[in-house]
Write a structure and sequence with these properties.
It is built from three helices and five strands. It is α+β, with helices and mostly antiparallel strands. It is globular, with a radius of gyration of 14 Å.
Length: 123
């Protein structure tokens, strides 16, 4: 079972407009904004507006419309960021082994440089 949603997590506060973000896309179900500590020239976070802790929670409980909107937004922000031809990587951390820091589902979109191997070999 997914953990309970924390309404005080930083992305919940961004969604409520309590703290600012560098928004690049918004639709009925999705918000996308630039990561505050970018790991690549393009580093955008795409989040559902709904209260979903992680991919585990989202994949089990989100509506088809929410799921479709999230994936379409990922493709759209990558295209609009200009990294579709050069290439990009998407990543979503879930839970402790992945070091998920913010307990609101977010998909990272990285691009704009060579991104290296898929995973480090060790911790
Ligand atoms: P994760 O480790 O997958 O949970 O990633 C969390 C990401 O959120 C990190 O890349 C942070 O730099 C990013 N982040 C944290 N706070 C903010 C914020 N206020 N605005 C934009 N990005 C943030």
């Amino acid at each position: 079972m997914a953990e309970a949603y924390d309404d005080n997590n930083i992305f919940a506060r961004i969604l409520r407009g309590e703290i600012p973000c560098d928004k690049v896309h918004e639709d009925d179900h999705t918000l996308a904004f630039r990561d505050i500590n970018p790991q690549a020239p393009t580093h955008i976070l795409v989040i559902p507006k709904g209260r979903y802790v992680s991919m585990a929670d989202f994949s089990e409980n989100a509506s088809d419309a929410e799921m479709a909107a999230l994936l379409r937004a990922v493709g759209r922000v990558a295209r609009e960021a200009g990294v579709e031809d050069s290439g990009y990587r998407i990543l979503a951390n879930h839970g402790p082994d992945s070091h998920q820091e913010v307990p609101h589902l977010h998909i990272h979109v990285f691009g704009g440089r060579k991104l290296g191997g898929m995973l480090p070999r060790k911790d």
